[in-house]
Specification:
The complex is a heterodimer of chains A (205) and B (135). Chain A has 205 residues and is mostly beta strands. Chain A is built from 2 helices and 12 strands; from the N terminus they run αβββββαβββββββ. Chain B is built from 4 helices and no strands. Classes of the chains: A mainly beta (205), B mainly alpha (135). Chains A and B meet through α2 and β10 of A and α1 and α2 of B.
Chain lengths: 205, 135
């Protein structure tokens, strides 16, 4: 009789549970917050057929944080936060070039550009040895938003300052911007720009 | 009138080749002289490029009319007449325009001096052409 009950129980239990997939529970690591400090900067390098230019936003005047959330199951890392940079803060070390870049970036219409951080390919260890990682960002210039894969170098110094250095080649045309030409096209600015930023951050406990 | 138009047209073609060919070579061999043109003061979007390239004909037709009106004042061999014509144009027209440009616009002295010599040489070439075509 007892064997019969066990058999019945198995007959009911197995079909009832046998076709149900196990539910994978995402195990998220506790989030970390990094506060961006003022000595962060962004540099844009470009060239024309008569010279090269390097324009910099030397300081970051906002109080922003990046939130980093790791996921143990699939190793992905979500990165939340954005950097807002004033187009008018660009300095090309030459007043005419500075005005030209600001005009090309349509400063009057779009006074700021944004870098929105989306993800990292792995959870960074943040050690003194620079670690190469990649991640997705959205860059918004002149009202046009584009997604890019960025190469980063991340390290942490003895003062516990986290240095996140990112670089990426972008084009004026990615953002529907027209590189300036002068004197009937005899002087031309190349479409390609190299963007290089360094965020210096402190971890919030 | 016909002579003014014909010499203006011939002068315009010669100045076109000289002016833009010279500009192209100058940008190629002396690029540093042109860095200051990366300035919003100069048209950037190409919308006025056709007007820019018409300049050789505009100056040629203007100088052709001026030559026809005052050619009796320029004496000697055709090269000398062309040279004197260039000097007259440079002193009467270019010098005051360059003066006011430099005093009021955010441009460099090198730019203004180069424009002066560019216009001066254009006027000498035009003068030599006119002295031959419409003596």
């Amino acid at each position: 009789m007892r064997c019969k009950n066990i058999l019945w129980a198995l007959l009911v239990y197995l079909p009832a549970t046998g076709f149900v997939l196990p539910i994978r529970t995402e195990r998220k690591l506790p989030s970390k917050k990094w506060v961006i400090s003022q000595n962060s900067n962004l540099r844009v390098n470009g060239s024309t057929n008569v010279n090269t230019f390097s324009c910099v936003i030397p300081t970051y005047d906002q109080q922003d944080t990046l939130t980093i959330v790791g996921n143990t199951t699939d190793q992905t890392v979500a990165l939340n936060g954005r950097v807002r940079l004033q187009t008018g803060s660009f300095d090309c070390h030459n007043s005419a070039m500075t005005r030209q870049l600001r005009e090309t970036l349509k400063e009057k219409q779009f006074p700021a550009l944004y870098i929105r951080f989306l993800s990292l390919n792995k959870l960074p260890a943040a050690t003194t040895t620079p670690e190469r990682i990649t991640g997705l960002v959205d860059i918004e210039i002149a009202g046009i938003n584009k997604r890019f894969d960025i190469s980063y170098q991340l390290s942490q110094d003895a003062q516990q300052v986290i240095h996140l250095q990112g670089e990426r080649i972008i084009n004026f045309s990615d953002f529907n911007l027209v590189p300036p030409t002068k004197l009937g096209g005899i002087i031309k600015t190349k479409d390609e720009l190299s963007v290089d930023f360094q965020l210096n951050m402190k971890a919030l406990n | 009138m016909k002579k003014i138009l014909i010499s203006g047209l011939i002068g315009g073609c010669i100045l076109f080749v000289f002016s833009y060919g010279g500009l192209y070579l100058a940008v190629r061999f002396f690029p540093s002289l042109f860095v200051a043109y990366n300035n919003p003061l100069f048209n950037s979007d190409g919308s006025r490029d056709a007007l820019f390239y018409m300049h050789a004909f505009i100056i040629s037709f203007s100088l052709s009319w001026f030559w026809d009106r005052f050619k009796g004042l320029f004496n000697g061999a055709f090269i000398l007449r062309g040279l004197e014509f260039g000097f007259v144009y440079a002193i009467i027209a270019l010098l005051p325009v360059m003066w006011i440009s430099f005093s009021s616009l955010d441009i460099t002295l090198a730019m203004v001096v180069s424009w002066f010599f560019y216009g001066f040489i254009q006027a000498i070439i035009a003068g030599i052409v006119f002295a031959k075509v419409n003596p």
